[in-house]
Design goal:
Layout (H helix, E strand, L loop, with lengths): L3 E7 L6 H5 L9 E4 L15 H8 L5 H19 L4 E6 L2 E3 L3 H11 L5 E3 L26 E3 L2 E4 L12 E5 H9 L13 H6 L4 E5 L3 E3 L12 H9 L3 H37 L1
Parallel strand pairs: 1-2, 1-3, 5-9
Antiparallel strand pairs: 3-8, 4-10, 5-8, 6-7, 7-9
Helix pairs in contact: 3-5
Amino acid sequence: MAKILKYVLGLDGANRFDSFYSVGAPAQDFIRYSAVDNRDNHVADEEFDVEFFRSRWHRDPSPAEKGCMLSHVNMWRDFIASDADWALIAEDDILISPDAEAVVNAIITKYPQVQLVNLSDSFANDAGKLNPQVEYIRLSLLSPFVHGKYRMGKPYGTWPLICTGLYLISRSGAELLLKQLEDKVPGTVADDYKLYQQWGVDVRFVQPGLCGWEGSSVILESGKSHLEMLAENQKGSSALDRVRIALAPKMRLVNAKNTLDATIDEVKQRLGKAK
């Protein structure tokens, strides 16, 4: 049986470990992992490649983005130094779903070749549900069901895959990521999945997501919780509420188009490889 190392990342004394563990059994096997606390912006250029970040994102990195990226790299290194086959990595602002263990086990059993699987949906309030009110990445219709209602596929289409709230990474995936950092320091955001794909990592994601949200992430500097930010984006004023309600059917059509675009993109890429 594959051995899975489980980490939950958070700032010591500042974040939400108690909230993370409040869900009970789904979270009980996770080991607390201390994040790099860069709120004072002490991380030097020798530790983080600011120039590469600027070339990729056309702006300066925030102190929290530096700390978050370095924290994930530290977890990858500790994972590789262990005897585990896989690592399941969470951030402490999530509420992990009771379905997570079954889905993760199904992925490892049915698709042992995958290397990095994003299990979180940063746009959804609750685990196990897509958010129909927001336009964002959708799976191709060719993506298989891995367990129950949960499907897994590669990111296709134009919408980016984001969020490191909860993800599964294999030993070979972590080794590929760290190989790119053998002679250089990190210089991007932790959820730069497009870059990881360019580095040869097999990146996939599951929908619906396997976590809800509570508390403030190590990457958020506003002091607002993830749920508060979602609420602000989705509710707003009463007048805006009425507009959103009126546009809800349109947004569903937009996301249906995103699904279709992802499916067409996957077909094109498959046909291209077959030639």
